[in-house]
Write a structure and sequence with these properties.
By secondary structure, the protein is an alpha/beta fold. The protein is built from 14 helices and 22 strands. Strands 5-4-6-7-3-8-9-10-11 form a 9-stranded mixed sheet, with helices on both faces. The chain has a 9-stranded mixed sheet with strand order 14-13-15-16-12-17-18-19-20.
Length: about 500
C-alpha cells in the first residue's frame, strides 16, 4: 500500500493592512499565493497594493512594487498624498526612459516576442535579487498587450505564478479590466480574486464597493462590501450579518420621558425592539424622539442620534425652546449626535457608525431621523429593505431600543409613504394633523406593538415649553387619523381651559 502524504500545512494568513478587509477575508490572504485585484481605473487598486506592502513592512517583511503603468515618481507622490513614505519598499519601473527613447530598437509598448521574454526575465531576476515576501505587479494590461493572444498570456501568467510560488511570495496582480468584457483568464489561475467597483452615477462622491469573487480554502464573507477611498487609504465596511452579534441584555422597559406616552406604549420602550414614528413633516416626530432619548440619558444610559435631514444647530435650538435641553448630555458624552450627508455615505458605512456607537461606546438607544433621507444613500429600495432589516435585527440582538422616524407626504387625508417599513417595525406610533374648532391640531396613536400590550386609543398632543403634553382619548371624534374628523360629543381638547 502506498503511503499517504500528510496534508500540507495551511498557509499563514497575511494581514492586508486595510481596515475591515481582513474581516471579509477571515483573517487575511493566505501567504505564498498569487491574487488578482481587478477594477476600473480609479477604483483604488494601486492604493490597496501600497497598503498591502506597507503592512508587510510593519511586520518586517520585504516588499516589492513592479510597475509597468506608472512611474516610480508617480507612486511616491501618490503615497505622499496619503501621508505615507515608501522607504524600504523596492519600486521597480519596467517602463524606463531608455525603453521609451526614439533610438531604442525595441519598445516595451510594441508587442513582440523579444519584449515579452525580456519583461518576464526582468521580473524574475528582480525577485531573485530582492527576495521579497510581498509583491505587487501593476498592471496586467501591458503584459496582456505584449502577449498578443490569450494563450500566450495565460502561459506567461502560469509561469509567473509557479515562479512566485517557488520564491514563497504573496503576490497581488492588479488589472484595470481594459480587456474585452468577460475575460476570465486570471480568475481560474489566481488563488483569490478581489473585485473593486466604482459607481460614478450617483450624486456627490463616488460610491465604491468590494467583492471577494473567490478565495480558495477560506470561508470568506460573500457579497458586496462598501468601502471608501480617502486620505489615509481604503477602509472597508464589512457587510453586516446580524446573527453574529447576539448578546444577553436586560428586558426592563425604558421610560419615554412622558408618563402618558409610556402608558400608550404598554409601559415604555422595550430593549431589543424598534419603534417607528410615522407622520407628516413638522408634526412632532423628531421632538418626541428627542424626549425619549433624553429620558434614557436621565436614567444613566447612552443614546446616539443620527440626523439625515435636520441640522444639529436647529435641533439643539428647538429642543432648548421646548425645555428638552440636551447639550449637557453631549458635553458629558452620554449623547452622540451625528449629522450625516446622505449623498456622501453608503449603507455599509452607516452600519459601521451604528456598530461603533453600540459596541465601542455603549449606546443603548439609537434614533435614525429620517428613513426617507437614508433611502437616498442606498443603491435601490430592495437593498434598503434588506440592509435595514439586517441593521434592525442587529440592534435588537444587541438589546438596543431603536427609534425610526419616517416622514410621510401630505398634511391631511390619505398620507402616502416613500417606502413602507411598517412591517419591519416592532411597534409603530402614528402621528396626524386634524382640524377642529378652526385650528390645526395634532393626534397620535399606537398602531401596533409586538413587545407589549399597547393602548389603541387616539389622543391629541401638543409640544410646548414643558415638552410633550398628551391629552385625553378623542372618544367623541371620528376620522381623526384620516385627517377628516367629525365631532360627535363634548370631549375637551388641550388648551380649552386656557381660553377665556
Amino acid at each position: 500500500m502506498p503511503s499517504r502524504r500528510p496534508p500540507p500545512a495551511s498557509p499563514v494568513p497575511q494581514p492586508s493592512g486595510i481596515p475591515g478587509l481582513d474581516e471579509v477575508l477571515a483573517g487575511g490572504l493566505p501567504g505564498g499565493h498569487l491574487y488578482l485585484v481587478e477594477g476600473t481605473p480609479g477604483a483604488g487598486k494601486t492604493t490597496l497594493g501600497l497598503q498591502f506592502l506597507l503592512q508587510g513592512r510593519s511586520l518586517g517583511q520585504k516588499g516589492l512594487y513592479i510597475t509597468l503603468s506608472e512611474t516610480s515618481e508617480e507612486l511616491v507622490q501618490g503615497a505622499f498624498s496619503h501621508g505615507w513614505d515608501l522607504d524600504d519598499i523596492e519600486i521597480f519601473d519596467l517602463v524606463s526612459d531608455e525603453g521609451l527613447s526614439v533610438d531604442a530598437e525595441q519598445s516595451i509598448l510594441n508587442p513582440s516576442d523579444f519584449e515579452l521574454g525580456e519583461t518576464i526575465r526582468g521580473v524574475m531576476a528582480l525577485v531573485e535579487r530582492v527576495r521579497p515576501e510581498r509583491v505587487v505587479f501593476d498592471s496586467l494590461s501591458e503584459l496582456r498587450l505584449l502577449s498578443q493572444n490569450p494563450l500566450r498570456y495565460r502561459r506567461q501568467i502560469l509561469a509567473l505564478k509557479r515562479f512566485f510560488h517557488t520564491q514563497t511570495c504573496t503576490v497581488l496582480m492588479l488589472d484595470d479590466k481594459s480587456s474585452s468584457a468577460g475575460d476570465l483568464q486570471l480568475h481560474s489561475i489566481a488563488h483569490g480574486v478581489i473585485h473593486l467597483e466604482q459607481d460614478t452615477s450617483t450624486y456627490g462622491p463616488d460610491k465604491r464597493r468590494l467583492r471577494v469573487v473567490k478565495l480558495r480554502g477560506v470561508r470568506f464573507r460573500e457579497g458586496e462590501h462598501d468601502f471608501k477611498l480617502d486620505k489615509g487609504g481604503l477602509q472597508v465596511f464589512s457587510r453586516l450579518i446580524a446573527s453574529e452579534h447576539g448578546r444577553d441584555h436586560s428586558s426592563r422597559l425604558v421610560g419615554s420621558g412622558n408618563r402618558e406616552l409610556d402608558r400608550l406604549l404598554g409601559g415604555g420602550l422595550t430593549p431589543g425592539s424598534n419603534l417607528l414614528f410615522a407622520g407628516p413633516a413638522g408634526v412632532g416626530k423628531t421632538t418626541t424622539a428627542v424626549s425619549c432619548a433624553r429620558a434614557t440619558m436621565e436614567q444613566g444610559g447612552k443614546a446616539a442620534f443620527f440626523l439625515f435631514d435636520e441640522g444639529v444647530r436647529t435641533l439643539l435650538t428647538r429642543s432648548r425652546a421646548l425645555g428638552l435641553d440636551i447639550e449637557q448630555y453631549i458635553a458629558s458624552g452620554q449623547l452622540l449626535l451625528h449629522a450625516i450627508d446622505p449623498a456622501a455615505i453608503s449603507a455599509g458605512q452607516f452600519s459601521h457608525y451604528v456598530r461603533d456607537a453600540v459596541e465601542r461606546q455603549g449606546v443603548t438607544t439609537v434614533v435614525i431621523d429620517t428613513l426617507n433621507a437614508y433611502l437616498i444613500a442606498m443603491p435601490g429600495s430592495n437593498f434598503l429593505m434588506l440592509q435595514m432589516h439586517e441593521l434592525l435585527t442587529y440592534l435588537n440582538l444587541q438589546g438596543v431600543a431603536t427609534i425610526l422616524v419616517l416622514s410621510q407626504h401630505g398634511l391631511s387625508g390619505e398620507v402616502p409613504n416613500d417606502v413602507d417599513l411598517s412591517y419591519l417595525s416592532d411597534s409603530m406610533l402614528q402621528f396626524r394633523y386634524f382640524e377642529a374648532r378652526g385650528q390645526i391640531l395634532k393626534a397620535m396613536s399606537v398602531i401596533k406593538s409586538r413587545a407589549s400590550a399597547h393602548a389603541s386609543t387616539i389622543h391629541q398632543f401638543r409640544l410646548g415649553p414643558g415638552g410633550l403634553e398628551i391629552g385625553d382619548a378623542l372618544t367623541d371624534f371620528e376620522g381623526v387619523m384620516a385627517g377628516l374628523p367629525r365631532y360627535r360629543g363634548r370631549t375637551s381638547l388641550l388648551g380649552d381651559d386656557e381660553q377665556v
